Structure formats: C-alpha cells, structure tokens
Amino acid sequence: MSRQALVQKRPYLILSVVAALVFYYLRVTELPEIYLWPIKGSACAFLAVYAFLRHSSPPARVLATAMVVAALADMAVEFDLRVGAGVFIVFHALMIKLFVAHNRGAMDGRDNLILLGLLIVPPLAGYMLTGSGGTAWATAIYGAVLGVMAASAWSSTFPRWTVGAGAILFVVSDLLIFAGLGPLADNPFREYLVWPIYFLGQFLMTVGVITTLRKRDPELAVVQGGRAD
C-alpha cells in the first residue's frame, strides 16, 4: 500500500503516531504539562477511533473501548501514578476479555514456558523492584493483572508477531516503570524508553486485532470510500 493510500484509508493510525511523536518530543521542553496531557491521551484515543471505524464486530468494540480507557490512563499517570495504574487495570480487564474469547486452546512446551513467564515475571518484578511494604504489594497485584493480559494475548488466536509482541512490549514498558520506583529511580535513560515501547505495544495490538478481525469476518469490515479496502 502506498503512503498516500495509507493516509487516505487509515488516517487515524497516522494521527496516532503523530500524537505519540509530538508528546515524546514536547515533554522535554518547557511547555506546561497540562498541555501535554491531551496530546499524550490522543495517541491511544486515535487508535480507539481506528478500531471503531475499521470493524463493526463486538470484539472490535471491546478493543476500541479499551483504547479509550488507555487514553484516560495515559493522562492520569501524569498527575498520579496510582490513579493511572487503577485505570490501566480496567484496560487490562477489557483486553483479557477480548483475548480469552479468542483462546487458541492447547499449546506446546515452548509456548507454555513463555505463558508461564508472562504470568510470573510481572508480579514478581513488581514486588522485588519496588522494595517492600504496601507499595511493593500494590505493584505486585497490578503486575499480576498485567501478566494475565499478556499471557492471554500470547495464548489467543491473534497473531503473535503483532498482538503477542505488542503485549510483551507493554510488559517491558511497565517493568521499566517498576524499576523507576526502585533501582533505576535516578536513571534518566529509562524515561526515554518507556513511552515509545509502550506506544508501539498498543499500536501493534490494535492493528493486529483489527487486521485479523477484518480477515475473519470481512462482512463486518467497515466500507470506506464506497468500496472495500
């Protein structure tokens, strides 16, 4: 597909990427944070619009709703990490619902090991990287929900090279946030990695799910410009 066709048929994907890049570069300027919040939130909000407009199935609606919640969470973490984490739990619950409904069934040994790792590593890392006490346990609980989301993505029938990889990137970005609450608190390099890794994960999951749904149920694909695309 040409660049012009991409812009014409999937403009909200382009707008999402632009919003993510604008936020990434403007956040190191002196622009007040209150102006950055809507820019940050619009990155996943445009992914939600893309999902809503590209397919009319219930799974696509769940994905679109999840991306709206993610947009709210992205803004919430800017003023309170705990509030943002709470909103992200709602996002994870919606994605788990989507992925579990498309479970691929029994898997082989290697896939089961990856599945087990996705379930164990996030809560364990959340607890160990944030010290001890209430914060560590709260982070571990969040990590457990995050791990279930990633594991359900990996065990779903959606492509692993997009949806599975996107979920794993989401985990990586959150592990960096966990580390920022502990051993990497004074490491500025971590700050430059979290957002691009996170957004790429959300982008891959959204595109992977919608592309798959359009192939599986073409009759529910939204026709744009008077013809299927």
From TrEMBL:
InterPro entries: TMEM86B-like. It comes from the Bacteria. The chain crosses the membrane at residues 12-28, 34-53, 60-77, 83-101, 113-130, 136-154, 161-181, 193-213. The keyword Transmembrane applies. It is a multi-pass membrane protein. It is found in: Membrane. GO terms for cellular component: membrane. Pfam families: YhhN. The keyword Cell membrane does not apply. Keywords: Membrane, Transmembrane, Transmembrane helix. Belongs to the TMEM86 family. This is Lysoplasmalogenase. It comes from Aurantiacibacter gangjinensis.
